[in-house]
Design a protein that fits this description.
single chain; alpha+beta; 5-stranded mixed sheet; 22 helices; elongated; disordered N terminus
Length: 699
């Protein structure tokens, strides 16, 4: 495992040692009194006497930017940490979400990151995470006019089809849940939850999956909030810290909490009155998109299957993708299985056994048990957990009561290496000593190991690669494993990027030539139209134009496919620049050309079409080619609205891994096109210059 450098890690550890006490929901033991036990002092800071915090500040009510300052529950939490360490707290300006983990790992700019990250195996290789400190839930916001209502099974059934587009923030628990539970819908990862909410409010997307706490606070502030309704999904604890191997552990008292007025002010909950159980077995993360890892796997209380013959009804079984650079579930490699069931009325369950087909294994799996009564977590004591081959049995100290939802998460289990459709079966034991078979789950599609995964595994075990990755720069920007997986995973985005600019540019050339002719025409009206069109498009950021097109048109009830809309935006924007290029090219033609054509009896239109434009095209080829390169790179801005082009794939991979290598790989894809074109431009310019000097082409 890669570790953070000493400076970054000690700062995060020392600070969050105090913070862990805060969020577990236990009673405050003295308000603002200093924490009992030693507080670490052997750490260094980016700025002497100041704890610098990195966050995207876009997650009301936990962290947000208002009146030119950072606000929210997490912000007050960070300030409390700094106070107990005898430090000032300083927040950096809002950062891109995918840049925070690399920033903390590298050090030098921020001491800690506090922005609700999802905890993933990939990120754990880069940085350390915190223990849970807050219970929260996932939720779905949907357009009211879609008529989606009912229980969770009905909502998921309505959204899980090819006609639905669900927005999520890239790299979050909401994205993980959506990909696992809505495989047939189009999942659109976006840069921030604000963009997700805007997209649903304006009708660009049909639904938005994210943390419920944020959405309940966000909707009242959204001017289009009345167009959205929300549905609550199941929750889990908000993450906080876990120590990194080899790091010094600092003592802390669990019952010393954050000042209650801050909890009530930001979250509307008094933790002295509401018990929020702390999960000490599984670490979640310090951050933002998913305040609860559990909620990812339990979106719905149930996909209830009415089966009166079962005292314990199987709701669902899902698995997390374990394919590097992909979304498949590979047999024979560690992954996480999540099984859910509901105890029927009048029954109590004392043990549950899950079984896989031959070749599967639970022997190395860590088992986490969650029991919910509605959205209330029921404390549960596990008497024993025994795994033998493809079977695992969980026995409870006290029977699980009727009506409860039981979730078993088995981290590190293996599906059969051969792949195929796998149903989870098993049995259960009731409190009265009788037992029965579990209803088989719906099949989980798995595949056999791929050449890519085998190559990644080989790189993981290669001593040279391990030494290469141990250097902070090469490990962060040039990690061989991620280069390999990114070349594969980014390839579809590169193809879409090329398709958008190749399709858009001919339209841009035609429109640009039209407006160039309008600008030099004798008609004042045509000149005015051309001037307004060209100046507005050239004088405003492409980013703004993209937002107006993607979120403005749906409000006018104009709905266009995202990829097609991307082509339109690039074509329109490029046409303004091409119009000026063509105008300059036309005006560079000597006046004698017009006079010669006129002396031959040619009309103005004939002169323009047959004499002037052909010469103009020849002269502007280098400039047009350079503009094509610019437009090709500008397609990266479409990632901000969920177009799955090259940079969108790179951003997702970086958000998931916490490593910058996918961006470097994206640069390779750009250079594959730009470097040859730059060379072509140089050759064309040389030939044109030689021709104009009368030298002709070299023979």
């Amino acid at each position: 495992m890669n570790t953070m450098d000493r400076r970054s890690f000690l700062k995060a550890t020392a600070a969050f040692g105090a913070l862990t006490l805060t969020g577990c929901g236990a009673k405050n033991s003295g308000g603002d009194a200093p924490a009992e036990g030693p507080i670490a002092t052997d750490f260094t800071l980016v700025k002497e006497g100041t704890l610098i915090v990195a966050s995207d500040l876009d997650f009301i009510p936990l962290d947000y930017y208002e009146d030119n300052e950072a606000k929210g529950f997490d912000v007050d939490l960070s300030k409390e940490i700094a106070k107990r360490l005898g430090l000032e707290c300083e927040y950096l300006p809002p950062q891109d979400f995918d840049s925070i983990i690399p920033m903390i790992k590298q050090g030098g700019k921020a001491d800690i990151g506090n922005s609700a990250f999802s905890i993933t195996d990939e990120r754990k290789k880069e940085i350390d995470f915190t223990d849970p400190y807050l219970d929260s839930n996932l939720g779905i916001a949907v357009k009211k006019d879609l008529g989606i209502s009912g229980n969770e099974e009905a909502i998921v059934g309505a959204l899980n089809n090819a006609d639905m587009t669900v927005a999520v923030q890239a790299g979050t628990t909401g994205e993980a849940w959506a990909r696992e539970n809505l495989p047939n819908a189009t999942i659109v990862p976006l840069a921030s939850v604000t963009v997700c909410m805007t997209g649903v409010s304006t009708g660009q997307y049909q639904a938005f999956c994210a943390d419920l706490l944020h959405r309940l606070h966000r909707l009242p502030r959204d001017p289009h909030g009345r167009a959205v309704r929300h549905r609550r999904l199941e929750g889990q604890p908000r993450p906080h810290r876990r120590h990194q191997p080899g790091a010094r552990r600092y003592e802390r008292r669990r019952h010393h909490g954050h000042p209650q007025e801050q909890v009530v002010r930001h979250l509307g909950v008094n933790t002295e009155e509401v018990h929020m159980p702390r999960d000490t077995k599984h670490a979640a993360i310090c951050g933002r998109a998913p305040l609860a890892l559990v909620c990812v796997f339990a979106l719905l209380f149930s996909l209830l299957v009415s089966a009166p013959a079962y005292a314990l009804t199987t709701n669902k079984a899902t698995a997390r993708s374990n394919e590097d650079g992909g979304n498949a579930i590979i047999g024979g490699l560690p992954t996480r299985l999540t099984w859910e069931g509901t105890v029927e009325a009048g029954e109590e369950v004392s043990s549950i056994t899950l079984e896989l087909p031959a070749g599967g294994s639970f022997e190395a799996a860590a088992v986490k048990v969650t029991v919910l009564d509605g959205l209330t977590r029921i404390p549960v004591d596990v008497a024993s957990t025994s795994a033998e081959g493809s079977s695992v049995t969980v026995t409870f100290a006290e029977p699980i009561p009727e009506g409860a939802l039981v979730r078993l998460e088995l981290e590190g289990m293996h599906f059969p290496a051969a792949g195929g459709e796998v149903s989870v079966t098993g049995s259960y034991m009731l409190a009265d000593g009788t037992g029965a078979e579990l209803e088989p789950s719906k099949p989980i599609v798995t595949i056999s190991n791929t050449w890519l995964q085998q190559a990644v595994n080989a790189l993981d075990n290669n001593p040279f690669v391990q030494a290469w990755n141990s250097f902070s720069f090469t490990g962060m920007f040039l990690k061989p494993q991620l280069i390999l997986t990114s070349l594969v995973s980014l390839f579809p985005g590169w193809l879409l990027c090329l398709a958008i600019v190749v399709i858009a540019y001919p339209f841009a050339i035609a429109i640009g030539m039209l407006f160039a002719l309008m600008k030099i025409s004798k008609s004042r009206l045509l000149r005015a139209i051309a001037i307004v069109y060209i100046n507005i498009l050239r004088g405003t950021p492409l980013f703004l134009q993209i937002y107006i097109m993607f979120f403005g048109l749906p409000m006018l009830d104009i709905h266009i496919n995202n990829n097609v809309l991307g082509v339109i935006v690039i074509a329109i924007n490029s046409s303004a620049y091409l119009a000026e290029i063509f105008r300059a090219g036309i005006e560079s033609i000597p006046v004698g050309q017009y006079e010669a054509a006129s002396s031959l009896g040619m009309s103005h239109i004939q002169t323009t079409l047959t004499i002037i434009i052909p010469q103009t095209v020849r002269r502007v080829i280098p400039t047009v080619t350079s503009d094509f390169i610019t437009s090709y790179k500008d397609t990266s801005l479409l990632s901000s609205v969920g177009v799955m082009e090259l940079m969108m794939f790179a951003k997702n991979a970086t958000s998931i891994s916490g490593n910058m290598t996918p961006y470097v790989t994206a640069a390779i894809f750009y250079l594959i096109i730009t470097l040859p074109l730059i060379k072509v431009v140089g050759i064309i310019e040389t030939n044109i210059a030689r021709s104009e000097r009368g030298g002709g082409r070299p023979g």
